[in-house]
Design brief:
Layout lengths: L21 E4 L2 E4 L7 E4 L2 E4 L5 H9 L33 H7 L26 H10 L7 H8 L56 E7 L7 E2 L11 E4 L17 E2 L8 E2 L5
Parallel strand pairs: 3-6, 5-9
Antiparallel strand pairs: 1-4, 2-3, 5-7, 7-8
Organism: Nannocystis bainbridge
Pfam family, one: FGE-sulfatase
InterPro entries: CTDL_fold, Sulfatase_Mod_Factor_Kinase, SUMF_dom, SUMF_sf
Length: about 270
């Protein structure tokens, strides 16, 4: 990956895998949220194996704000109007200092550190949807659509309830269920629960941090091919996969939730598609 020359290979269960690794997803048909009334088809695509890490995001911060997206950057090649909109520029931090401040949304659970340290292999959080979009565009990729993300997590037409299958969630499969009111809840390195990997080798599609996708949180159309919800229904942007502080239910491939796009959330990170 062209933006990963300075990113140390510290990801995965053994701590020695390429944090920028991508895995191909063979396209096909499936039922969104495991509902036969919501069939969809996706073309072949690639999806980051890991959630974007602090170390990987650090390269974006170092290049900011020169790397703000150009109009239409980060578009899905089959979805018209899915690229960067110039009016979104005002929703990005003004400069690198403001960007670093925005990454400190929670003193207890934020993963960003202004200087490199022991958190480089942790998933970046406190990132707004606009920053996640901008990062993926800069990294010569894009945010996955909700349909693509759901397809990868469900194992395509295997219609898995969890990325690993039908078995119950366990600590070996996902990082979830931490009581943030009473526990420290440290986030582990991405890829620390390989028993929970999806069909195509993607880690942490359930738990750790939820993940921004391209779509607004809204009404799923009855049938679609390479589609996304690009109309704002005032419910925010979609974030999929559950997180370290929520229950097994939120980690299913059927669970959907929206967050305000301009706010960085402790519980939300992202990965990129190509």
């Amino acid at each position: 990956m062209p933006r990963c020359h300075a990113v140390a290979p510290v990801c995965g269960d053994a701590g020695d895998d390429d944090c920028c690794a991508s895995a191909a997803v063979a396209g096909g048909g499936f039922d969104r949220i495991n509902d036969p009334g919501l069939p969809a088809t996706v073309a072949d695509f690639e999806l980051d194996r890991y959630e974007v890490t602090v170390g990987r995001f650090r390269q974006f911060v170092a290049d900011y704000p020169r790397n703000r997206p150009a109009p239409d950057a980060g578009a899905h090649p089959r979805i018209e109007g899915s690229g960067w909109q110039p009016e979104w520029d005002a929703l990005l931090p003004a400069d690198a200092a403001a960007l670093q401040v925005s990454l400190q949304c929670d003193a207890n659970f934020r993963t960003w550190t202004d200087a490199p340290g022991e958190a480089e292999e942790l998933p970046i959080n406190c990132v707004s949807w606009y920053l996640a979009f901008a990062f993926c565009a800069w990294d010569e990729g894009r945010l996955p659509t909700e349909t693509e993300w759901n397809y990868a997590a469900a194992g395509g037409n295997e219609q898995r309830l969890f990325p690993w299958g039908a078995g119950a969630a366990t600590a070996a499969r996902a990082n979830f269920g931490c009581d943030t009111a009473t526990e420290a809840c440290p986030l582990p390195a991405v890829g620390s629960t390989p028993q929970g990997d999806g069909k195509w080798g993607h880690a942490d599609l359930a738990g750790n941090v939820a993940e921004w996708v391209l779509d607004f949180h809204g009404t799923l159309t009855p049938e679609c091919r390479d589609c996304a919800i690009l109309q704002d229904e005032t419910f925010g942007r979609e974030a999929r996969g559950g997180d370290f502080a929520h229950t097994e239910m939120e980690m299913t491939t059927t669970f959907r939730i929206g967050y305000a796009a301009d706010s960085g959330q402790t519980f939300v990170g992202f990965r990129c598609a190509r």
